Amino acid sequence: MERDPGVAVLRLGHRPGRDNRMTTHVGLTARALGADRAILAGRASAPKETIEDITDRFGGPFEVELTDEPGRVLREWSGPVVHLTMYGLPIQDVEDSIRADHGPEPVLAVVGAGKVPFDVYELADYNVGVTNQPHSEVAGLAVFLDRFFEGAELDREWTDATHRVVPKATGKQVEPIEDD
Amino acid sequence: MERDPGVAVLRLGHRPGRDNRMTTHVGLTARALGADRAILAGRASAPKETIEDITDRFGGPFEVELTDEPGRVLREWSGPVVHLTMYGLPIQDVEDSIRADHGPEPVLAVVGAGKVPFDVYELADYNVGVTNQPHSEVAGLAVFLDRFFEGAELDREWTDATHRVVPKATGKQVEPIEDD
Predict the structure, then answer these.
(1) Structural domain boundaries, residue A102
(2) What family is it from (chains A, B) (predicted)?
């Protein structure tokens, strides 16, 4: 979202094939709920392509990149690093601190697939639990973003879309957007 | 969650194998974020088993059931039916109405996998979009539940758990719960 502070989402531990759908959902959730950018660790070219296709159709700005060095991304990130984990501190207790703590640098929200290496817990400025129950990295990311942006992400305007959904009480309406 | 109004989650369109992980995430998200019950349409015994294993370990109450007649569940539901769909009305515009509208009957939150039959749109009392962007039924459900319960679900107490996570700023701590 083009407002301060921006959020990038780092997806760790992607396993090609097996995790394609979950990683795609992580990236699409990041895009839909106000993040600017998804960084996918590992051979995640299939999810990257799907997320870019959606951005081409429904708008951006939203960037997707792959990395073979997620540890370096974590270590070199200049803004706050927020690792979403069921073992972390309750989001309702730390969300205000996270918002207050950031300067002009974007937040990096980190979500794993399966077991996350221990150094991620140590490199994170905040280990945050959206509940301390096992559920879904997609759900944790969604609640984190909605709370971080305090709902403002739902009013985001999209640019360079070719199509848009017209909200309806019943049924489906998608309309093309004509370039001026 | 043991407070009014309860929420049940109906998962439509499960394809065995292919959707196991997504359906499991839907069910675990429902449990973690305050719903009482998940109803899984189709041959979803593998997700059912995983969700029940988590409930046995980390607590309930939470029920999981399978149905071959999701249309009947929808038609016979006595409380409000909320279908989460990218084509629906913005959640920020309708969440207050949904809360105000329910009586003592639980809400049924409906999420699809892939294409949802058109009669679901017609049977729903509310078609609700968590954004009008394509992303994830897990993310949509998570944001819906967090908003519906206004965050109270994060303070839920769990019963009959054998283990609990102790929230930590860094690292992981899971402790057994001893029965008295």
Answers:
(1) 7-176
(2) Belongs to the aTrm56 family.
